[in-house]
Amino acid sequence: MTPQPWTNIQIERLALILASATKEVIHHYAIREIMQTTAYIPVDFGVSNRKTSHHIKKRGTHYIRYGKKAIRQKMESPRHAHGWTASSEIRERGYFSSEDNPNSFLCQLVALCLHEYAHLIQVYRGHPTRNNVHSPAFYRILDDLHRNHDLPQELSIYIYSEARDAGLPPLEYLRPNEEIQEFYPGQRVSFPYQGNTEHAIVIRVNKRTVSAHIEGNPKDKWRISPYILTPAPLENPSETQAPPNNGRSLGIVPLAPVLIKK
After folding, report:
1. Domain spans of the chain?
2. Pseudo-torsion of CA 159, 161, 166, 168, nearest 10°?
3. Beta strand pairing call for 61-67 and 43-48
4. What is the pTM of this model?
5. Is the Cβ–Cβ distance between 199 and 215 less than 8 Å?
6. How far, in Å, are 89, 118, 190, 195, 226 from residue 86 at the CA level?
7. What is the tens place of the pLDDT at every residue in 4-20?
8. CATH topology for 180-261?
């Protein structure tokens, strides 16, 4: 077996979670701390079938929509993994600390929610022009949202918890292709299993998983997601592990942790 792509229902559930998180976490905070108003601001948070997520204001109502096709593309294609404006903002503006794993899919979802809501504040303040949406004024707003450390953290916890409760695959295992370790046959690795650490030897690199056998027991074979594998420390630190000339890189983005005993 290999990891299965997320179903349309799962994608829609995740998009709805983003809409709910934007409303329950960011909107409530922004009304109180940023806009500092008691006036009613009509906002409709929802999901669309588009390849982009967006904010728009029509007839006095703000609409924030999270595109299901955009989320699927983000998850399944390394090219799209770095194509979101929110993703480039993480890299270029230094959002999130190294402890937060800024390249994780969860952090990028948080950045997406903050990005779309920053557009709402931008329109509320009357700053944007048709040809200069991502203006310095916009990025001042977005920086302020990210610098409130409680807000990204609360948003991350909300999205993670709701996704877990909805039975979705764990989001922390989704991250861009460039973060994948390169594995190769014969490499010593380790992975967590039932509270313990198992040590194994890579047999083969598959399209979405790594085949390995438990160290010292070649008949005890597993298929494992590369995202829960860790290269074993070298016995001689002066040496370096290097893949053979025919070593293969995992040019894929698995959609869920996989741990299958053969």
Report:
1. 8-173, 180-261
2. 70
3. parallel
4. 0.65
5. yes
6. 5, 11, 33, 35, 25
7. 678 999 999 999 999 99
8. SH3 type barrels. (2.30.30)
